[in-house]
Design a protein that fits this description.
By secondary structure, this protein is an alpha/beta fold. The protein has two domains: 167 residues, Rossmann fold (3-Layer(aba) Sandwich), CATH 3.40.50; 177 residues, 2-Layer Sandwich (Dihydrodipicolinate Reductase, domain 2). It is built from twelve helices and 15 strands. The relative contact order is 0.16.
């Protein structure tokens, strides 16, 4: 057997190992049973080839209550993800990680090491080091790791990438992006999003990761080189912000606003800002400037779904300045359903992850870089290790 044939056989064996038995339903376990897990549950239930068989949550009784609320029976309940993963009688195929930001990495790495495919809710994790550990575990396991960026599947979001990749804008040299809410610190379900020991990062990770993915995916995910970042917590720390729970101000330990100036490969500048709260309706539209044209994408609160107004291309035609309006594409079925569907298909067929970690690690590196730069109050270099 020559070396080329041996290499191809090794690849075939690894690809086959990632498949799920097509003759039975995919057995799904939930890690974390909070608010976002409900969206995952509804979508998994909508898949005829998936079966929810286990759920784990650190809060006693929460996993059981969660499944009962969603009408799912015959589920095994556990007080931790480690306890669930150690029960081999479950014969799990995949897990969905819906925990606090702080534990995304631990739960994902442990699940991959246990030989399971993983769908991890966004943000990927908290730090670049955690993202590296997740990527290494994925490569060692040969399993599918997908990160929860459902806006990727929206046709209007796809159009942004089509426009950039078509060359219509020429060479891209500057991007302004971000988004935010005038009054939108996420506390309807308590303090898990805002507490330093659970959320760890605030608006930057929660909705900033979506904004970054929208433009980085359109560009083909160039690597970041340097970042000068800023974060603040003026609103989160103000008791007057919270109408019914002024005590939340004492619990607030993350950012409610972040901004950064990022240098990307290809001599591209990324001007970024994101907010959970601010005295403004929007920090500005997303604009992508190229040598042949510019694209304006009207702002939304956090880019977690679709573009909600027509986009515009500014360019010259026959020496005349022209603005071309991009018509809105019709709404699709649930983006969450699409996210779950393509993830399950990748697990069954041994195909690449629909939202690959080798892209989202770049997203995480920028988030981590902004945080570090903000603390140091200076520009820093971003280095993503080869894995």
């Amino acid at each position: 057997m020559n070396k080329e044939t041996e290499l191809l056989n090794q690849f075939h064996e690894r690809a086959t190992e990632t498949n799920v038995d097509p003759n039975r339903k995919i057995r799904v376990g939930f890690i974390g049973c909070g608010w976002i897990a409900g969206a995952h549950m509804r979508s998994f239930k909508a898949m005829s080839d998936a079966e929810i068989v286990a759920a784990a949550d650190l809060i006693p009784g929460k996993a059981k209550k969660f499944c009962e609320q969603h009408g799912v029976e015959g589920v095994s309940y556990y007080g931790s993800h480690k306890e669930m993963l150690s029960d081999k009688s479950l014969q799990l195929d995949v897990v969905t990680v819906c925990t606090y930001n702080k534990t995304h990495a631990e739960c994902t790495v442990d699940s991959l090491n246990a030989g399971l495919h993983v769908l991890c809710e966004k943000p990927m994790c908290v730090t670049l080091d955690e993202a590296v550990a997740m990527r290494k575990a994925e490569k060692a396991s040969g399993k599918v790791l997908a990160i929860g960026f459902q806006p990727r599947f929206d046709d209007n979001m796809k159009m942004i990438k089509k426009i950039v990749q078509s060359g219509e804008l020429g060479k891209i040299y500057y991007i302004q992006t971000g988004g935010g809410r005038r009054h939108g610190i996420p506390v309807p379900y308590g303090t898990s999003f805002i507490h330093k020991d659970t959320g760890c990062i605030g608006a930057l990770g929660d909705i900033g990761c979506y904004s970054l993915d929208m433009v980085l995916n359109a560009l083909g995910y160039p690597k970041p080189l340097t970042v000068s970042g800023y974060t603040s917590d003026f609103f989160g720390k103000d008791p007057n912000y919270y109408k019914d729970h002024p005590e939340y101000a004492d619990a607030f330990g993350v950012d409610d606003f972040a901004a950064a100036f990022v240098r990307l490969e290809g001599d591209i500048i990324l001007d970024f800002r994101i907010a959970w709260a601010m005295h403004m309706d929007t920090p500005g539209d997303t604009i992508i400037l190229g040598t042949k044209g510019g694209l304006r994408i009207p702002s939304t609160e956090c880019w977690n779904g679709t573009v909600d107004k027509p986009m515009s291309i500014y360019h010259d035609v026959c020496g005349e300045r022209v603005t071309t309006t991009i018509p809105m594409l019709p709404p699709q079925k649930s983006l969450f359903d699409m996210k779950i569907r393509v993830f399950l298909d990748a697990c069954k067929n041994g195909t690449p992850s629909p939202i690959p970690s080798d892209q989202i690690i770049i997203n995480q590196a920028i988030i981590d870089g902004i945080n570090k730069s903000a603390k140091l109050k200076k520009e820093i270099e971003i280095v993503i290790p080869e894995i």
